[in-house]
What we know:
CATH superfamily: Ribokinase
Shape: globular
Number of strands: 13
CATH architecture: 3-Layer(aba) Sandwich
Mean pLDDT: 95
Helix content: 25-40%
Number of domains: 1
CATH class: Alpha Beta
Amino acid sequence: MLNVLVLGGTTFDSVIRLKKLPEPTSQTIHSAPFHETVGSTGAGKALNLRKLNVPSVLHSIIGNDLHGERIIRFMQQEKVDFVYDIDPKGTERHINLMDEEGNRISIFVTQSSDKPELDLSRLEKLIQGCDVVVLNIIAYTKQLILLCQKHKKPIWTDLHDYDGSNAYHEDFIEVADYIFMSSDNLKDYKSVMRRFIEAGKQLVVCTHGKGGSTALTKDGHWIHTGIIPGYPFRDANGAGDSFFSGFLYGYLQNRTTEDCLRFGTICAGLCITSAELVHDELSERVLQSEYEKHYSKQ
Length: 298
């Protein structure tokens, strides 16, 4: 199987689950389930790929601090091949407020450096040795775009809740061959998808939460896949990264775009039953079993 390099995206997060997100008024919430865990988009993708036996390396920046040490230990525990550089601003931390409908408010209580000092020699070797680059929309990864282009690596990116015009995303959009995003902030997601394909992208995928997902191929073919309704909801944190990873797994297996969407749907469905970024029991065997269960008769 092809080797994947995931660039950017590790935090140490506090996750608070509420029945409903708070209204914008003064109030006291007397009880709310709470836990701390490793978070962010690179961690979510790397954890899923590891459980699916996709050869992969995660690079990120962390602080020389307690939270950075906890991320290192967690990645070792999960057998993720984790390479990092030290951020002088410390480990990025988020507080995520999650409600029972899957809505989220993310508060970045600390932020990582935009341009930290990186071991570019080591990173160039990692880029040279991979087959696919997942370029997450973390500011420091912009330093690595020229190296990815130099070695002509296909670039996958995840724009998350892109609004169709945010200038921050433009560098990632310009260099990406494969683009993922959600329709949360898009009034007309199809026009944005068409725009990307017309700009020469190989594939664009847009997720819609409970509305499923839509792909647009380079030849203009639209494919829509609904969710699997049977998964009991617990926590939506990490569902998008699980979807991305399931899709990429299918792509690396030379499956059809429709099958890739289905693999992504399964991984996301399993993820929402868990309080973590990835379902604890996820594996190739479980993924294939779920595929047979839900799609074998279609």
